[in-house]
Design goal:
Blueprint (H helix, E strand, L loop, with lengths): L2 E4 L2 E4 H15 L3 H9 L2 H13 L6 E5 L5 H10 L4 E6 L2 H13 L6 E3 L12 E7 L8 H11 E12 L7 H20 L2 H13 L3 H10 L3 E8 L4 E7 L2
Parallel strand pairs: 3-4, 3-6, 4-5, 6-7
Antiparallel strand pairs: 1-2, 7-9, 8-9
Helix pairs in contact: 2-7, 3-4, 7-8
Function: Methyltransferase required for the conversion of demethylmenaquinol (DMKH2) to menaquinol (MKH2) and the conversion of 2-polyprenyl-6-methoxy-1,4-benzoquinol (DDMQH2) to 2-polyprenyl-3-methyl-6-methoxy-1,4-benzoquinol (DMQH2).
GO biological process, one term: aerobic respiration
EC number: 2.1.1.163, 2.1.1.201
Length: 243
């Protein structure tokens, strides 16, 4: 059985899938509240920047992978309008249900699919834009997932990856203290689950650096790959094209 990492712990690939699912089932109900607290509201600015950089325009077909509570789906829906099409997808039913209900409560109907990013149930060359925000880090085979994203993109389309990354080195000690002390404490108070936020901090450290992710995107076929460091590298936005 193949081994992989779950934070700093080595586990089987099957066990990782189960553990990641448990994390998001546990935090789903208060996920948005914790995002606001953890980032002091900055996640909203990061996501708006992602929409702007994506190049999405009226009439586009957009795939939101690991879309969870539908923050980006809602923003993309505004951008593409009624002539466009935005799919909300996630592997985790608890998260997906919250996103689906939120869109319905806002009077916005979007197609929804529970699916694994490593096996996307969409035809080749279908979407104009694909986006994955704070989800790639949790995927076991990032190269396979990225190759699937490339497959479903139409020629000329772009992929946006918004993800926690490697912070500016002088800030590392302060960031580590915040990540490993403050985040689990907040998680314990708000969600009664400190372990999931300890995993969050560990998973960020195990995620590829800005340059490594750029190279991985290039290896699976993306071209003109570039990245933008946000908040001193706490988050990075990668963009690549399919030609």
């Amino acid at each position: 059985m193949n081994a992989t990492h779950f934070g700093f712990t080595t586990v089987s690939e099957t066990e990782k899938a189960r553990k990641v699912a448990e994390v998001f089932h546990s935090v789903a109900a208060r996920y948005n509240l914790m995002n606001d607290l953890m980032s002091m509201g900055l996640h909203r600015l990061w996501k708006k920047f992602a929409i702007d950089v994506s190049g999405a325009r009226r009439g586009d077909k957009v795939l939101d992978i690991a879309g969870g509570t539908a923050d980006l789906t809602a923003l993309f829906r505004e951008k593409v309008g009624d002539a466009g099409e935005v799919w909300l997808t996630d592997i985790n039913n608890s998260m997906l249900s919250i996103g689906r209900d939120r869109m319905l409560n806002d009077g916005k109907s979007v197609p929804v699919a529970q699916c694994d990013a490593e096996k996307l149930p969409f035809p080749d060359n279908y979407f104009d834009r694909v986006c994955v925000a704070f989800g790639l880090r949790n995927m076991t085979h990032k190269d396979i997932a990225l190759r699937e994203m490339w497959r479903v993109l139409s020629p000329g389309g772009s992929l946006i990856v918004l993800e926690f990354s490697k912070v500016w080195k002088p800030l590392q000690p302060l960031y580590d203290t915040y990540s490993f002390k403050a985040l689990p404490f907040m998680g314990k108070i708000v969600t009664r689950d400190d372990a999931s936020y300890r995993y969050l901090a560990e998973s960020i450290r195990m995620h590829p650096s800005q340059e490594d992710l750029k190279q991985l995107m290039q290896q699976v076929g993306f071209e003109r790959v570039e990245y933008f460091n946000l908040t001193a590298g706490v988050v990075a936005l990668h963009r690549g094209y399919k030609f």
